[in-house]
Amino acid sequence: MTDCLPGLYKFLYPMNKISTILLFLLITHLYGYAQNSVVTNAILYERDGDIENAKKQIDLAIVHEKTKSVSKTWYYKGLIYSDIYKSDKVEVKQLTQDALKTSTEALLKSKELDPAKGEYYKLSDQLLQENWANLINRGIAYYQGGKYEDAIQMYELAQAINPADTTAYVYGTYSAEGLKKNDLIQKYTDKLLEIKYKGLYIYTIAVRTALLDKNYNKAIEISKKGLTDYPLNSTLLEFQTLSYIEGSKAEEGLTNINDQLKTKPYEVNLLISQAVLYTSLNNNDKAMEAYQKIIAIEPHNFFANYNSAVINFDKGRLLAQKGDKTGSQTLFSKALENAKRAKSLATDESDLANLDKLITELNTILK
DSSP code of 269? Predict the structure, then answer.
């Protein structure tokens, strides 16, 4: 009998090992099942309206190895936190802060984990569209309350939901303006122009931001697009003219304006740009020609009268220095006439102060 023991032992050992493996597999299966049951419990609690316990269960599921990489888990987290956001009960609202933000982030994660765009991808997308409207409305409320950073958080989540929709980018631009964050303004306006948004406000602020960043080529490019959709817009023309001047491309800008004046010779906004460009090239005679055309078309144009007064005054002083009293007096008289008319049209305090000073000096000279 004892001779059999070694053989028997050899036979029993592998069986014990198999039993151990089977036991381990059973425990692992049960453990995985237990974790999946946490998600199931969360679902059941949510359906019963027990949001507090649903939250507890789903919060456990999204940190566990077995369930944290599953689209379904994140969808239900998004759903449960959406319930918290929409709840009218104070005790439910107090379960967490930023429930809408958390819900949206969870639903985006659910879509990310379902590249095949299966059931939970589609369910997440449906709920995200509901969240999108809430994010926009909440962002507007933050903006109106001066909470621009909070507004931007909402808008950027909305952008992540519908990246081809212009709404969140436009509102985001307003908030970025409130914060004076040019990097954000540029980010949003670049995206809007990329997706072919054609709002005048966006064109204007995009050009202005490019100018502030001294990206003059970009400013010229955007202004050209804007003027295609809003021909002869005075603000866009002003920014375009400034872009040409600051970018050392005044000659190019002048060619552009002169080409347009061939078919629109009486367009005041084009004539103003022409005059400014000539002035930047130290050609005041040509600038004055443009201003005189403007005054002939619009006698009460403030800009043309103001600048005509300054040019006539400067030319009059030069003639006076050369001893040409008659010529200088003629120019001083014209300058006074322009200055008085400009003063009657001025609304800015600094312009009024400058014109008062010029008029006083001209009156003294002409006595």
Answer: H
48: three-class secondary structure by DSSP: coil
Check: CB of residue 328 under 8 Å from CB of residue 362. Answer: no
List the beta strands (DSSP E) in 137-271.
Answer: none
| 123: helix, strand or coil | helix
pTM for this structure? 0.81
Task: With beta carbons less than 8 A apart as the criterion, state whether 156 and 163 touch.
Answer: no
Residue type, 21: I
DSSP, residue by residue, 34-78: HHHHHHHHHHHHHHTT-HHHHHHHHHHHTTSTTTTT-HHHHHHHH
For the chain, give every domain's residue range. Answer: 21-197
Whose tokens are 């021909």? That residue is 231
pLDDT tens for residues 34-87?
446 899 999 999 999 999 999 999 999 999 888 999 999 999 999 999 999 999
Other Cβ atoms within 10 Å of 344 Cβ, number = 11
Q: Could you confirm whether domain 21-197 is CATH 1.25.40?
A: yes
